[in-house]
Amino acid sequence: MAEERIFAEDLSKQFDEFWAVDGISFQVQAGKVMVLLGPNGAGKTTTVRMLTSILKPTRGQARVAGYDVVRQPEKVRGSVGVLTEHHGLYSRMSSVEYLVFYGELYGLKPRVCKERIDLLLDQFGLDFARKKRLGEYSKGMRQKLALVRAMLHDPPILLLDEPTSAMDPESARMVRDAIQKLRSAERTIVLCTHNLAEAEELADQIAIIRQGKIILEGDLQEVKAELMGPPEYDIRLAGELNGQMIELPEGVTLIQKGSNWLRVRVPHPESDNPRLLRRLLDLHLEVFSLHEVPRSLEQVYMHAMGQPEGRP
Amino acid sequence: MIAALNQLGPALLVTRREVRDQFRDWRIILPIFMLTIFFPFLMNFTARQALGFVQRYGASIIGERMVPFLLMIVGFFPISVSLVIALETFVGEKERGSIEPLLNSPLKDWQLYLGKLLAATIPPLISSFLGMAVYLIGLARENVPLPPTDMLVQIVAITIVQALVMVSGAVVVSTQATSVRAANLLASFIIIPAAVLIQGESILMFWGNYQTLWWAVFGLAILGLLLMRVGLAHFQREELLGREIDVLNLRWGWSMFRKAFTGEAHNPKEWLLREVSRTVRRLALPIVLVTLLVAVGAWLGTREVQHFSLSLEQGGLVDLDERLNSALSAWPAFALRPVLIIWWQNIRVLVLSMLLGMFSFGVLGVLPTMATVGIAGYLMNLLTVNGIAPWYYLVGFIIPHGVFEIPAAIIASAAVLRMGAVLATPTPGKTIGEVWIGALADWLKVMLGLIIPLLFLAAAVEVWVTPRLAIWLFR
């Protein structure tokens, strides 16, 4: 089993009378990308701030890279790279000056720092602008530079809060590609977003937060199955059904049918689909194609958001 | 030692970056440059003209005293820029969101605070010293006599502590604002006292009371350190990012106060027995400290007899019999009016103590009690030096009501002292406002639950018992 890099149990944060985060628990293993999905004000940023030891949890506990967020805040912050919603750049500095400053803060040796800066600026396509003032950078370039800053000390954990919010599609694509490049077996990424396409593209596991509570959590397929039932398959037949009644294998449910097609729900595709195909062949119904009906994360999300309080 | 220096390293990195950034901003550079070069020349010209003018009328002393005064002004103007830099560096970063990556770094809160504090203090101070140098060189070139070295040292010291007070004050303001606009509004709490301070220092300079000016340096240094302590106590990641504090929320303030005031009590009896006694227990350390300070006050009072010795007649200690009798006729037994007058006076003094303490970290709040006991100490020693045993007077005039009044005053002063102390104490998860509201509720709790009843008892004893006891003793 892969090493657990982020562990949160009953993590909660109260501001005055308001519980911004209320008893969330999750774990993320090394090499995984976890996406925290939720509307504005759901508690995503507060969760990230607790995981970076900026905010102290009112209740519960969390460990990041093996360090306790309350007792070992400096160790935690040294182990994570954080991309905040606001890029937080200094407009009168050049990118190299800016990165050298952060490299020194993270205790990088000058030679290592220079190597990392050269490598990352090149990797993120910012090398050409290394001497430009950051005030002259476009929004996409700024966000990429903020990502470079988060990556500079090569942290095992990356926490990315709304990395593409308020960006034009091209810049957002650039940043998503950049995040894809950061995936590795050694790195754990937590991404907060309300962009469902982004989440679907990048997530190994997702957690949907609403009003400070996780209402759904798991890997993408698990979540879909839990929320919307077993996967559905469309079967196209080479010939007509001609009103023929079909007795399906046990567990497989017919949802809809047409003159030359069927839509079925299959709880265990690995074992049920071969049996289903054999049955159709036994009935002399030749199968032209079989494919899973795509169910977008958007459907899952909207379904989850439509549920009353608690786990759907 | 080396470990401590290593800990300073990250703070100095922040300072270096901020200073470099400031020197790229013409809005900061221009005023600093103007105040370093042009303003000293102007002051130079003013000094020469003033000297020439007053010498014509034989009032050369005014001119002589104007030279160091203008030096102080030349030093003060550039450091006033430090306030702007401090607000910008603390709140500006918060407002632009550029502070969050810093908070996500392994920097400790104090390192970030110190780095920014130095960044806001050092460039204006350097500018200030350069301006003073330009001013002095200009005077020397015109053969105007320069102030003596010890006075120069004094003015440099004043400039440094003023910068420290302004910047550390600005940081306290910054912790309570999430926008530069709000911080600028709050900055009047620094600018106005600083202007008053300069006026006070000017008076001392023209008066020629340079020794007292050292006390001003000392007082400002203490104030600067206290403000730094408060700033450090409240410059926490949690407070910087965790909440929106610009909005005036009276309902929230009232609910906080009510919660702190009533505590867990469900009825007045519970409140009195549990909450008030719990609050008094919380005041244990301040009570000990105030008791010590009051003892020091009494001792200082006894010493003052050496400097301000009076005859018994001047001290109002003759014809006691007659005066006590007239007091008795004015205060008949069980008359309520004199009791209420004394009661109200004592309450007023303690409310004044609280108001004084509110603006001085609780320190001035102890003064009225110290002063009262100091006067009593003075009078007792006055009797001693006049060959009269003070114990009769102590028993006859002070102890009967003093046993209620003095502890009441000590506890009230302790609550005020604590009010100031909690501001300078780190309280994770609480803003300055929350901490202060809690301390104010504690003060009111002990006032209503303990002090005011004790003061009533003291006033009643003072009117009904003390004069009669005194007459019995002195007859």
General description of the model:
- The complex is a heterodimer of chains A (312) and B (475).
- Chain A is built from ten helices and 14 strands.
- Chain A is an alpha/beta fold and 312 residues long.
- Chain A has a six-stranded mixed β-sheet, with helices on both faces.
- The longest helix of chain A has 14 residues.
- Chain B is mainly α and 475 residues long.
- In chain B, helix 1 packs across helix 5, helix 6 packs parallel to helix 9 and helix 14 runs antiparallel to helix 19.
- Chain B contains 19 helices and no strands.
- In chain B, 42% of the residues are buried.
- Chains A and B meet through helix 2 and helix 3 of A and helix 1, helix 4 and helix 10 of B.
Beta-strand content of chain B: under 5%
Assembly annotation: heterodimer
Could you name the ranges of chain A where pLDDT drops below 50 across 5 or more consecutive residues? none
Rounded to the nearest angstrom, the distance between the terminal CA atoms of chain B is: 70 Å
Query: What is the average per-residue confidence, as pLDDT of chain A, rounded to a whole number?
Result: 85
Number of strands of chain A: 14
Average predicted confidence as pLDDT of chain B:
82
Instruction: Assign a percent range to the helix content of chain A.
Output: 25-40%
What is the C-alpha radius of gyration of chain B, as a whole number of Å? Answer: 28 Å
**Most extensive interface:** A-B, 30 and 27 residues
Sheet of most strands of chain B: none
Shape of chain B, please? flat
Secondary structure tally, helices of chain B: 19
Q: Determine the strand fraction of chain A and express it as a percent band.
A: 25-35%
Return the structural class of chain B: mainly alpha
Report Rg of chain A: 24 Å
Secondary-structure element pattern of chain A, one letter each: EEEHEEHEHHHEHEHEEHEEEHEH
Kindly, what is the distance between the CA atoms of the first and last residues of chain A, rounded to a whole number of angstroms? 28 Å
Shape by Cα distribution of chain A: elongated
Count of folded domains of chain B: 2
Which residues of chain B form runs of ≥5 with pLDDT under 50? none
